[in-house]
User: Fold this.
Amino acid sequence: MIKTFSLTFIALIAFASNSVLNRLALSDGSIDAASFTIFRLLSGAIVLFLILSIRKHKKPSSKTKGSWVSSLMLFTYAITFSVAYITLDTATGALILFAAVQISMILISLFKGTRLQLIEWIGMLGAFSGFVYLMFPDLGTPSFKGFVLMSIAGAAWGVYTLNGRGTQDALADTAYNFIRTIPFVVILVLLTFKNAHYSQQGILLAILSGAIASGIGYTIWYAALRGLSATQAAVVQLSVPVIAAIGGVVFVSEQITQRLVIAILLILGGILLVVLGKRNDV
Assistant:
């Protein structure tokens, strides 16, 4: 139990760190969004490949090779995530991302014929209300461009997650998906190298995001999942935007506004109702 708790806590810190590291790198102009994405994906691919190579005792199934669709979704998530953080603060970006992931997965399930119970509909309404409140015209309203881009990032990650359900080896699939993003990364390099700018600090932050927060973070998360039920895993992930918000205050000197706090309560509370409603089938 202690092992599962420790692994889960470390993984959640790693997930939230992606938002903090990205925002920290872009807020002071130490690297551009495209270059951050390039270094993040390449370092993540290298670390996951090494982890997979070291893990000799469990060879992945021949069917465990990831997919090009998942890789495209992973790349789409990574680039829109980084560009969105040019105009969004850490907490707002993390909240929009997490909510977009969960809502897109729910909408896809509805499209496939899944029926929601009353409590789940109430939760969905609460989450959407939080979105509307967060974006309601005001001096504290987040950038609309950032909101759209982060929503796309969340939707891409939602599709990536659904596409990976039922995998025989989640870590191996993730590693192969990261490796398959390399052709997309090469295209991004060719399209952006003339306008690229980066410093040692920016590159370091991108590598920390890719190698540690993503590569090692996912590895630890998959280990933690062995001791968590699906509902527990979904519920504990609600803490990621909150952890990211704290990280934004500590490391990026950002402020947590009353609007953001209310939006967090509405969105995460709504998603929690959906998760619990699905579990209890009430």
User: Anything to note?
Assistant: The mean pLDDT is 88. Residues 14 and 213 are 4 Å apart (CA to CA).
